[in-house]
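In response to reviewer comment 3 from the previous cycle, which asked for concrete evidence that the modeling workflow produces usable outputs, we include below a single protein chain processed end to end. The sequence was submitted unchanged, and the resulting structure tokens are shown without manual editing.
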Amino acid sequence: MGQQKNVDGDEIRRRIAAGESKAGVARELKIARMTVYRALETTD
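The workflow returned the following structure tokens.
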């Protein structure tokens, strides 16, 4: 059920760890900021 993931959560976490801002990551990956926050709170 639900929509299939388009972005890998590991990539989001890697970019945040490298120092990118959450808003910047969302903008570059063309996803919502909430998606970034969800990826950070879960471990695929």
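The chain is about 60% helix and 0% strand. We consider this sufficient to address the reviewer's concern, and the full set will be provided in the supplementary archive.
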